[in-house]
Design goal:
- By secondary structure, this protein is mainly α.
- It has one domain: Up-down Bundle (Ferritin).
- It has helices at 2-28, 34-61, 70-76, 88-116, 119-141.
- Helix 1 runs antiparallel to helix 2 (34-61), helix 1 (2-28) packs across helix 3 (70-76) and helix 4 (88-116) packs antiparallel against helix 5 (119-141).
- The longest helix is centred in the last third of the chain and has 29 residues, at 88-116.
- The N and C termini lie far apart (39 Å).
- The relative contact order is 0.19.
- The model has no long low-confidence stretch (mean pLDDT 97).
Length: 142
């Protein structure tokens, strides 16, 4: 159970970092495809943001408290935060890499949940995996 809880905290920190990265790109993208990219990044960050609260609730369901500070989220996240304003092509490449990292931690958490028979958490994680696999396909299509 402890391994699953710790991995879920990494899911939470990574989701928060991914949301912030995508929102940064939404705010700062430029170029001839601005409207299309702006809308895509907006939809992406809104979807990821919607998962932050439900991930925290999954941690609480497992009997643990959730981290709640930006510093702690950064410590837990397995993706790098964005400190520059890259070109749109670089934005898509970095977001695709970050989404792939999100998938890796989701797979790890799902494996841990399956090992201990936490079926509700498995269902939640499998849904998130499906969403991020779709994100991966879309990001790589750009």
């Amino acid at each position: 159970m402890e391994q699953l809880i710790e991995t879920m905290k990494v899911v939470l920190g990574t989701s928060t970092a991914l949301y912030i990265k995508a929102q940064n790109y939404h705010w700062n993208v430029t170029g001839p495809n601005f409207a299309e990219y702006h809308n895509f990044f907006g939809s992406f960050y809104e979807e990821v943001y919607s998962s932050v609260d439900t991930t925290a609730e999954e941690i609480r369901k497992l009997g643990a408290f959730t981290p709640g500070s930006l510093e702690r989220f950064l410590e837990l996240s397995i993706i790098e935060e964005e400190k520059s304003i890259p070109t749109p092509d670089v934005m898509f490449a970095r977001l695709a890499n970050s989404n792939d990292a999100m998938l890796r931690v989701l797979y790890e958490a799902c494996d841990s949940a399956e090992e201990i028979g936490a079926r509700g958490t498995v269902n939640y994680l499998e849904e998130r995996i499906g969403i991020h696999e779709k994100h991966a396909w879309m990001l790589k299509s750009f």
